[in-house]
Design brief:
The complex is a heterodimer of chains A (425) and B (425). Chain A has 425 residues and is of the alpha+beta class. Chain A has 15 helices and 17 strands. Chain B folds into 2 domains: 222 residues, 2-Layer Sandwich (Cytochrome Bc1 Complex, Chain A, domain 1); 179 residues, Cytochrome Bc1 Complex, Chain A, domain 1 (2-Layer Sandwich), CATH 3.30.830. The radius of gyration of chain B is 23 Å and the shape is globular. Classes of the chains: A alpha+beta (425), B alpha+beta (425).
């Protein structure tokens, strides 16, 4: 086992261990805490819809299968994982996102026992025709619940308009129709590909002993042979499907997502470029920015206004979202401010203030074992050091940030609006 | 944990909760006022207007610039309903001085800032500024409308409205749109004065060391206010059981129906009874080991979510679920059947023990979350003797099966609210 220790001058450190079978383990000890948070994850999410294993044929799987598999993995031949956790009192859960599936627990007691349950059920798939059919019913209801959520719809409507081919545009849970095509055979195929230890990671933060935990993991993780996973390339043009999309909904205030698709040259964005874009977004429309004040004073946004750099493997976009009586005007104002910064730059005092702010946020994130463990999953998926952001924030320059303004291209923008039904208008 | 408790004036107390786990200091002001139909909307607006501008910071860009310079010091504001009281909260969280990059003083500056916002708002001639009030009114109205759009929240609030038509608990926590519209700059100023003189006040400081003079500073500010009429927080009026339960149906343009059931039960005031009700409610519809999760969701696949939660001060238990219209009747009778099983003590030892373990696990993790510690002591201090989460965990451990059954026996169906998709007519 190869081990590396990473340290930071804010009094935090963590260990990264790489096991023979390729599994990566990240552990951040927090001895003064009462609890610990552990995640066992795989680099497998909703976007992995076509792939091959060890040079074999490419297979295409139904949309929503990664999420379906997450639900099903909780069941083993000897009962479901929740009943096992119930005996220890741990809080257990799981989630599937675009690029990963994570199984997690948090506990203030019985850590070793909980870790054993986690390692055991994630490595013991058990799918039958009957259990798959039952799950189709439950997930069908989950999908319908999201159909009623305007905040979910406004985002996915935008992604569908923005991406021509990339599967990031599909709903993580798939559709009632797509999940009806899932059977146990397909689930096993996906499991055997993506749940190989070489594609997986374990991230733990809290009151634990690194040596003891590593010993336990080494003895419990299967010594499977490493495999070569090839994800089918995505031919995504640098255009968008349409610049505007609207859906009527029983809401009283319209909602919007205003996104800019970024032309990308490599699958992943490095942490430095992410930090620069985050700083730039704070400067464009963070709460201390002139634009935010203008939009608020004119009654165009409220506290729901938000923005994010939305990026993963082979996709990147900037998304501004919120509620507004006039979404089109908000979008125009944002575009104008971007053009203004492109031409005139931005206030250096504001730059220094937002740098302090992001630094403070990064320090604050070490308050929570959950936040540390989940940030470590980002490190595992995108292969970077947890402290890179804090280090870079000390040195990042005005010019580093200003040059990122070029990622905004009005032609690649999409405005998605949820507007009230006639009867609510 | 709770290090000391200091009297700050009539019906005003300061709590210092010492913890060396966090990288931040968190200070909150918590004002308790009786729920009053005529004042609720005014009071609910105060935390928000007080945290967006102040005498020293006339607009929120300047205020947010200051917060950024304090390394993302973060202001929080909320208005909640706790039993028959309205709880207004304003707080600040800031990273500790030792993390500042250039040795800046952060904690004392942040505490001063919070005090100035609460006690020196942006006002003139006994009135707030109209532009600030109108902006906050607009945001409040959009927030109220936003909650109406999220159907799970909407269905719950409709149930409470129906259950408490003649009781202050039926008053919406932020008032109605009409009440918000009636607020003026002058009437809001009166509400601010009223809050400072009449509210029961709890100030919490959670930090590894008590910032110098924090409580003395507040004490001297309070001395200049006539607090002879300050209220004390008493028990809430219990929910009156109905002889025959009520049914309310509403049709709306949604994909999935919502079934929300409200039950009356005995209100609790002492820790032991509180613990018994907590366990009862959790066995009935808490974690994945609970009756509702296992029978209504897993065994019968009647809905994606179905859970129970309670407002113990008020003697209220709510079951809410998202159901397809054809399953609503079956789900309702299954929920009632499961309640009868709990009342008859026919829950298993596994369910009983799992529930206790899960609650204890959660309580013992509270100390790892600054916000959770703050909320805990705010509610506990105002309502009863402040027992710590860890001590409450030991009370939970002592709860016996018979206490759970006794608690369940007081639960009576009061009102059933059904949100039905229009197309299902």
């Amino acid at each position: 086992m190869e081990k590396q220790i990473f340290e930071s001058d804010i009094g935090e450190s963590y260990t990264l261990a790489a096991l023979q079978n390729g599994l990566k383990v990240y552990i951040c000890e927090k001895p003064y805490y009462s609890s610990a948070y552990a995640v066992f994850g795989t680099k497998y999410g909703s976007v992995d819809t076509a792939f091959s294993k060890n040079g074999g044929d490419t297979i295409c799987v139904p949309e929503g299968i990664a999420h379906f598999l997450e639900h099903k993995l909780f069941e083993s031949e000897d009962g479901d994982a929740f009943s096992k956790y119930a005996k220890t009192g741990a809080m257990a859960n799981a989630f599937t996102s675009f690029d990963r599936t994570c199984y997690l627990f948090s506990c203030s007691d019985n850590f070793d026992e909980n870790l054993e349950i986690l390692l055991d059920f994630v490595q013991s798939p058990y799918f039958t025709k009957e259990t798959v059919e039952k799950e189709q019913g439950i997930i069908g209801q989950e999908i319908r619940m999201y159909d009623d959520s305007p905040s979910w719809r406004v985002l996915f409507n935008m992604l569908s308009a923005m991406y021509v081919n990339h599967p990031v545009k599909i709903d993580i849970a798939g559709t009632v129709e797509s999940i009806s095509k899932i059977d146990s055979d397909l689930l096993y195929k996906c499991y055997e590909t993506f749940y190989n230890p070489s594609n997986m990671f374990i991230c733990i933060a809290g009151n634990v002993d690194t040596k003891q935990v590593l010993k336990k993991i080494e003895s419990s993780v299967k010594n499977s042979e490493k495999i070569d996973i090839h994800r089918a390339g995505i031919d995504e043009p640098s255009t968008v499907n349409k610049n505007y999309v609207e859906q009527k909904f029983p809401v009283l205030t319209p909602m919007f997502c205003y996104g800019f698709k970024q032309k990308i040259e490599s699958p992943y964005r490095r942490i430095k470029s992410k930090v620069c874009v985050e700083l730039l977004l704070e400067i464009i429309c963070g709460e201390a920015s002139p634009l935010y004040k203008r939009l608020m004073d004119e009654g165009l946004i409220n506290d729901e206004f938000d923005f994010e750099y939305f990026t993963g493997r082979d996709y990147a976009s900037i998304i501004f979202s919120g509620e507004s009586q006039e979404p089109k005007r908000v979008a125009e104002e944002i575009s104008k401010e971007i053009a203004n910064i492109r031409e005139h730059g931005f206030d250096k005092k504001l730059f220094s203030a937002v740098k302090c702010s992001l630094y403070g946020d990064a320090v604050r994130s070490f308050n929570s074992v959950e936040s540390i463990a989940l940030s470590l999953t980002d490190c595992a998926v995108s292969d970077f050091d947890l402290f890179e952001k804090i280090k870079f924030l000390k040195t990042v320059s005005y010019d580093d940030v200003l040059k990122r303004i070029d990622i905004f291209d009005d032609e690649l923008s999409v405005l998605s609006v949820i507007s009230p039904l006639e009867e609510n208008a | 944990m709770l290090e000391n408790c200091i009297a700050l004036g009539n019906s005003a107390q300061g709590f210092f909760i010492k913890s060396d786990r966090f990288k931040t200091t968190y200070v909150t002001y918590n004002f308790f006022l009786p729920l009053e139909k005529e004042n609720v909307a005014h009071f609910a607006l105060l935390p928000f207007i007080l945290t967006t501008c102040g005498k020293e910071y006339p607009d929120f860009s300047k205020l947010n610039f200051k917060l950024n310079k304090l390394y993302s010091a973060s202001l929080s504001a909320s208005a909640e309903k706790v039993g028959d009281y309205q709880l207004l909260r304003v707080g600040i969280s800031v990273i500790d001085d030792k993390y500042a990059l250039d040795g800046e003083e952060l904690v004392n500056k942040a505490v001063e800032l919070l005090n100035s916002l609460v006690f020196e708002p942006r006002v003139e001639n006994n009135s707030f500024f109209t532009e600030d009030v109108e902006r906050e009114k607009r945001k409040a109205i959009e927030h109220i409308r936003g909650e109406l759009a999220e159907k799970r929240l909407y269905a719950r609030s409709r149930l409470i409205e129906e259950m408490y038509k003649d009781d202050v608990y039926g008053i919406p926590k932020c008032g109605t749109e009409k009440q918000v519209k009636e607020i003026t700059a002058e009437s809001l100023y009166k509400a601010w004065e009223d809050m400072l003189s009449r509210a029961a006040l709890i100030v919490n400081v959670i930090s590894d060391s008590l910032p110098q003079n924090v409580f003395d500073g507040i004490k001297s500010r309070l001395l200049s206010i006539d607090r002879s009429g300050a209220i004390t927080v008493n028990e809430s009026k219990p929910t009156r059981p109905l002889y025959a339960s009520k049914r309310v149906e509403e049709k709306m343009d949604v994909a999935q129906g919502k079934l929300v059931m409200g039950f009356s039960m005995d209100a609790v005031s002492d820790d032991r009874k509180n613990a018994a009700v907590t366990v009862m409610c959790d066995i009935f519809g808490g974690g994945p080991y609970s009756r509702l999760f296992n029978y209504v969701r897993e065994k019968l696949s009647l809905c994606y979510y179905c859970s129970a939660n309670s407002e113990k001060r008020k003697g209220l238990l709510i079951v809410d679920s998202g159901v397809e219209v054809q399953n609503a009747k079956k789900a309702e009778s299954e929920i009632l059947r499961q309640l009868e099983i709990v009342k008859a003590g026919r829950f298993t030892d596994f369910e009983f023990e799992s529930s206790k373990k899960s609650i204890i696990n959660a309580l013992n993790s509270y100390g790892d979350h600054q916000e959770a510690v703050d909320s805990w002591y705010t509610i506990k201090s105002a309502m009863s003797n402040p027992i710590s989460p860890e001590d409450f965990a030991t009370v939970i451990a002592k709860v016996g099966r018979n206490e759970v059954i006794d608690a369940a026996k007081t639960v009576k169906l009061h009102t059933v609210y059904n949100l039905i998709p229009k197309e299902a007519q």
